[in-house]
Here is the input.
Amino acid sequence: MAFVNLKKKEVQVKIVYYGPGRGGKTTNLEYIYAKFNERIQTEMVTVKTHGDRTLFFDFLPIDIGKINGYAAKMQLYTVPGQVKYNATRRLVLRGADGIVFVADSMAVRREKNILSLKNLHENLKNYKKSIFAIPLVFQYNKVDLAEQGIPLLPFATMEKDLNSQLKRPAFEASAVTGSNVVPTLKKIITMTMASIKDELK
Amino acid sequence: MSNDARKSKVDSDLANRLDTLFDEDDQGEKPVVTKGHSKDPLDELKSLVMSIEWEITDDLMERFLSQIDSLKTRFGEDRILIMFLQLLGSLGLYIKTNKGKAHPIAFKLLNSVYNSFEDAASPGKISPSEKKKLLYIELNKYKELKEQIESSRGPEVEPSRAPATVTGRMSDSPTGGSTVGNSSAEGSNVINDVALTQRHLEKAIGDLKSLIIKEFAGIREDIARLAKAK
Here is the structure.
């Protein structure tokens, strides 16, 4: 639930990047931070394990500016993708207003994507939220690996596996090169803000 | 303004803001600054403090205590920082012994002491008197925590559940002769430490008090001197 401070005219929105481990969630945030650091003027906080994996979460606050007289602040989080960190994932997911599901386009990760989406569904249920109701955008990441001859799942297959019932916006992307990282972010912000618009009176 | 008009204004405001903010054409790429696994012992300690919030394992607590030790060597000359480290070490040992049963305030205090320590250890960030003040505040919180634990457990509860006291001794030997999984040996070390180091805490607080009294006396003298000069 977005935090709306009517007195201060401020709205805080929490967007969580979710998905399987090594899928590129942190890379999404790193790209946004590296590219727009001067404009967003905040610091990205990343806590990694020894193996360079996200153990807790990454956090990137972004001040969007005034929307309908309200100072809009986006808080972008990632969750640790590794299966064993579900308790952490659940904690980070608490209070999420919008979700970007970063799926891995590599063919060998097909099952992991599906399991991770199921895990998202379960964890949302834990907070009495429905995956069908929350603003959600899919990002099929790592499409750049096709150039290296790595077998990837076709867009249609990814859609069938993950998005056939949800029918949410989906982007093929490469977080490493930045391709479609920003459109994904814009889309989830727009969808999330639309979902809380009635509160911004 | 009608509801529809207001909604469309919000949409267009938002679209404009996002286009301005995330225009990808004129931005030069910058290196990402992350707080990742680092060789800096302070960063490492911070990462361990954050880890303790999520999960408490013997391995993690051993690493935490050993990191405290290495920082003691690094800040050996600075008495205030050493006392901060002793505080962190004592809290760490208490959490290690009690794990999930540790008093919830112990975790908050661990964070608070770390944050104050970080400020105190950053060159030029705060003045020496502010450093002392921060230490004094944290010591008081620590004392309050000890009192709370002691009053809540009553006279019958085993003393091994009490937090250790701030001294050099405990942190100088983080393993304290105990081994992972040997809770009775660990408990008895903590009992000994509590008994042996109570005096040290009282002495440390006494030292701080006399230091503050001296500083106030100095300030009073200065004021009197200035008043006479007028």
